[in-house]
Amino acid sequence: MTPRVSVVVVNHRSAAEAAACAESLRAAFTREAIAGELVLVDCASGDDEVRALRAIAADAEVFLDENRGYSGGANAGLARARADRLVVSNADVVFLPGALTALLAALEDRRVGAAAPLCLWDEGERLRLPADPASGFFGELGQLHFAPFARRTLALWRSGGDANHLPGAVLAARRDVFDRIGRFDERFLFEYEETEWEDRVRGAGLRLRFVPEARVRHLYARSAGRNPDTERRRAVSRRLYRERRWGRLGRLLLDRAAARSPRVPAATSLAEPAIPARAGAWLAVSTNPSFVPFAGAALDRDFRLPDDVLASLPPGLVWLRVFREADGRPLETFVWRKA
C-alpha cells in the first residue's frame, strides 16, 4: 500500500536524537491514523553510528558513504520516498501530537508550496524558535528594525500565515512541488539549502505557509556542534547563496558588514540568565545583538533560560530583550555571558 506521507529524517552523528525522532513519528502515525513511512538517511557518520541507526527499524534506510550535507541527504531520501506528501526533517526533532496532521492539512491548499511547524526549543515547550529567519538582504545585513520584526514574529507564532522564508528544521511539501521546481541544491553544504529552495518555491508563484498548530521540539544547534567541519561548510553555503541571490557586489557588502564589529545596544549585565514576569511583555533571546532573528517566550511568569537550552549554547554573550506585546517596542535589554 502506498503511504499517505513519507517522512525523510536526515542524520549526521545524531543517532540518539534520530531514534527519538523516529519514535515520535511512529506514535504520530498511530495516534493520528496516518499511513506513513519513515525514510532514514545517514550522511557518512561512521560504522558505530550506522549500527545504532539500524536498531530504529525504518521503512527505508539510505546510508551514504560520503557526507553530501543536509541537501544531499534529503535528496537521497526523497528519491526513496513513495508518498505524494513529503516531509523532510532534521534528526534532532521530536514531533508533538497533531503536528503531522496540521502540516498535511496545510498542503491541501494548492496555493501552498511548502509548510513548516512552530519549533519549540526547550523540554518545557516555552521558548519558541524563529518563525521567519529574516534571510532577505536587509535581514542578513542586520538592518531590520526590531519592533516591526517582533510584531511580525508574534503574529506568525499566534496565527500563522504566509512567510517570506520558513525555518528548515522541518519542511512539508507535495511531490508535485518537487517535480515542478526540483530538489535541494547540493552545492549548499550546510544551511541556505532550504532558503534557496524556498526562493524557487516563491518564484513559481507558490506560498510558504507557517503552521503554528503543528508543533515540534527542535534540539537546535546540538548535532551541528558535533561536526568539526560545520563552520567551513556554513561559510561555503553563505558565500554561494549571497553571490547567487544578490550578485558579487551584494555579497561583498554583506561580507564587509559581517566583518565589522556589530552594533551593540545599551544593555544591563545579568549574573544569571533570568528575567522576572512582566504583564503584557515578551522576551527575545538571541546570540546576535541585533535580535534579528530571535527565540521568544511570553513573560506571563518568571523566565530562566532552561538547562537543556544552555547546554546547546556555545560560550559567549547571550542577549535578552523585554519588549511590549502590543507593538513590539523594546522596554529593556540585558546581556549575560555564558562561560
Provide a short characterization of the protein structure.
The chain is α/β, with parallel strands linked by helices and 339 residues long. It has helices at 15-31, 47-54, 69-80, 99-106, 137-141, 146-159, 175-181, 193-203, 230-259, 307-312, and strands spanning 5-11, 36-43, 60-64, 85-90, 93-95, 112-120, 161-162, 170-174, 207-218, 268-269, 274-275, 281-286, 295-298, 303-304, 316-324, 330-338.
Describe the protein's architecture and organization.
This protein is of the alpha/beta class and 339 residues long. The chain has two domains: 5-129 and 167-226, Spore Coat Polysaccharide Biosynthesis Protein SpsA, Chain A (Alpha-Beta Complex); 268-338. The protein has helices at residues 15-31, 47-54, 69-80, 99-106, 137-141, 146-159, 175-181, 193-203, 230-259, 307-312; strands spanning 5-11, 36-43, 60-64, 85-90, 93-95, 112-120, 161-162, 170-174, 207-218, 268-269, 274-275, 281-286, 295-298, 303-304, 316-324, 330-338. It has a five-stranded mixed β-sheet with strand order 3-2-1-4-8, with helices on both faces. The chain has a five-stranded mixed β-sheet with strand order 10-16-15-12-13. Strands 5, 6, 7 and 9 form a four-stranded mixed β-sheet that branches. It is globular, with a radius of gyration of 20 Å.
Which terms would index this structure?
16 strands, Spore Coat Polysaccharide Biosynthesis Protein SpsA, Chain A, 5-stranded mixed sheet, globular, alpha/beta, 10 helices, 339 residues, 2 domains
- The portion of residues assigned to helices is 25-40%
In spatial order, strands of the major sheet run: 3-2-1-4-8
In the predicted model, the low-confidence regions spanning at least 5 consecutive residues are none
Q: How many separate domains?
A: 2
The CATH homologous superfamily of the largest domain: Spore Coat Polysaccharide Biosynthesis Protein SpsA, Chain A
N-C termini distance = 54 Å
Our count of helices gives 10
Within the CATH hierarchy, at the fold level, what is the topology of the largest domain? Spore Coat Polysaccharide Biosynthesis Protein SpsA, Chain A
Number of strands: 16
Tell me which CATH architecture of the largest domain applies here: Alpha-Beta Complex
Strand content: 25-35%
* Overall pLDDT metric: 94
Question: Could you give a short account of the major beta sheet?
Answer: 5 strands, mixed
- What structural category arises from helix and sheet content? alpha/beta
Estimate the global geometry from the Cα principal axes: globular
Q: Element order, helices and strands?
A: EHEHEHEEHEHHEEHHEHEEEEEHEE
How large, in whole angstroms, is the Cα Rg?
Answer: 20 Å
At the first level of CATH, the class of the largest domain is Alpha Beta
